# Entry
Amino acid sequence: MQIGEISKKTGLSISTLRYYDKHGLLQNIDRSNGGIRKFDDKDLEALRIILCLKTSGMKISEIKQFMDWCSKGDTTIDKRLNMFYQQEKNINEQIDILNKSLKLIKFKQWYYETAKRDGTEKNVKDMNIDDYPDDIRKLYEETHTN
Amino acid sequence: MQIGEISKKTGLSISTLRYYDKHGLLQNIDRSNGGIRKFDDKDLEALRIILCLKTSGMKISEIKQFMDWCSKGDTTIDKRLNMFYQQEKNINEQIDILNKSLKLIKFKQWYYETAKRDGTEKNVKDMNIDDYPDDIRKLYEETHTN
DNA sequence: GCTTGACCTAAACCAAAGTTTAGATTGTAT
DNA sequence: ATACAATCTAAACTTTGGTTTAGGTCAAGC
# Structure
């Protein structure tokens, strides 16, 4: 497979693929005699991991580190395993943060739904917290502490 | 409250707070006669939203758009409500992506745990998919389709 | 042999989200 | 009055993750 086909399969632009190659994320990609990159399934699998790590917030330089470990062989198995443990933690933290954001978003939805019904923000803005519906007050308290 | 105290309360650096102010995220912050910013609880509440929107992936320019709507009054209630609906969708999509990443991470944890036990990556690399444990094969199939 | 679309590199460019720097001002405490 | 920490601005700088541009090659079909 050539770079154009890989681009279509992964959704990454051709220039991004070349950028990743240049920065060491795609290690020992074959080349034709003329210098054209020849990708195989192993490269697609590497890209799957790269995309996974990238979308879960890992930096290019850290992904390169991992790829370097992969090339280095069995002596780095432990490092790679620990990286995946760490990345699991990172992802779970991100999900927690997103769920917390979601609570504030939900509260604001109620706030603006109320304002919309009233035709004005005034009433809901001046409303006493104790007069919020129970579930909304709970959201408010969870998102407005400390 | 002055900028240093707000910095401590929000965890944002002083320069970031000034950057946000400059880019219109903190609208009509009071100033002392000498020009020093005086923050109040309303500003802290605004920062709560700013942080929530930022950590859930919204760009500074989009957050500014929202703040501009807030300043514009009741005519923009609908736009603001819709923004919160849209942001809920965005967050849920992000969580989905993270959960998908988590599956590949889990698969790789098993892969490297096995390699670690064996002392080499060789066996597990060459292993037939049908010989994966059931739960792991499921993870593999969920993350290696299309 | 020639054309043509896909590919190549290096280097410049870009946007976002800040951070740093330099030099000036404020305002509180002694 | 003076010292001092905290604040101010404008402008330059930084990092990350690419994209764009310019000027070539490659290789398949006619």
Observations:
- The first helix of chain A runs from residue 3 to 10.
- The helical segments of chain A are 3-10, 14-22, 41-55, 60-72, 77-118, 122-126, 134-143.
- The beta strands of chain A are 30-31, 37-38.
- Chain A touches chain B at residues 48-49, 52-53, 55-56, 73-74, 77-78, 80-81, 84-85, 87-88, 91-92, 94-95, 97-102, 104-106, 108-109, 112-113, 115-116, 119-122, 143-144 (CB under 8 Å).
